[in-house]
Amino acid sequence: MLKQLLDYTLVPSGLLLMVAYHLWLLHRIVKHPTKTVIGVNAIIRRFWVRAMMEDTSKNGVLAVQTLRNNIMASTLLASTAIMLSSLIAVLMTSGSGDRSMWLVFGDRSELFFSIKFFLILVCFLVAFLLIVQSIRYYSHASILINVPFKKISRNVYHHQRTAEYVARTVNRGSYFWSLGLRAFYFSFPLFLWIFGPIPMFLCCFLLVFMLYFLDIAFEFGSSVGVSDNDDDHDHADNDDDHDHDHADNDDDHDLVDEELGTYL
């Protein structure tokens, strides 16, 4: 009874910890993108796409090679995910002997083992689907990024909208890649759950602790804060150029708001 109680308390607690952390991370990405690695990378990718599309005759090969590297990495992860899914499916259907002799501190019933293997299988299948979507967007972007939009139209507004669309496509590919990796991360505590709820809960705690330092952009966020403070100090010292500086800063803030508001 005590072992079943551990499964009923530690497993939901570990999963709730993982879900709560990712909800908090999503809030940070939406509200404070410059303080997260995902948000910073999304903004930088937009600048990279614009730089590549400024001169497609010179940068076209570099852009396609970069996207091809991302497609190859996504293909490797997708192949791994579907291979692991097949392996888990074989383990579920084979009925590998007497599991009561396994080193497990928790519920050893066949129902619980079936639930564990099923959740791992679903986790890898979700990872496969997400990474396939990443390949899809990267493939589209590899064609769109070489469109000679400056020769097609002379309208600057159309140029900006075209570059934003391509950048949005590249970012979506990266988002699906990140979600696929998160599905792989979720498989670690689910796999350790086979050996009991205690290893599963400890894995969730250590995984959240590790992901926090991988997801938060400490240096970039602090540099933005220092830059903002420096701008405020310059406004106080330069009274004669106050109107001109205020107009420039309004333009800068509009540009930053546009970048942060459309990078998703």
UniProtKB/TrEMBL annotation:
Biased amino acid composition, Basic and acidic residues: 232-247
UniProt KW Isomerase keyword: no
Region (Disordered): 231-252
Keywords: Membrane, Transmembrane, Transmembrane helix
Superkingdom per UniProt: Eukaryota
Transmembrane segments: 6-26, 71-91, 111-132, 190-214
Protein name: DUF599 domain-containing protein
Organism name: Acer saccharum
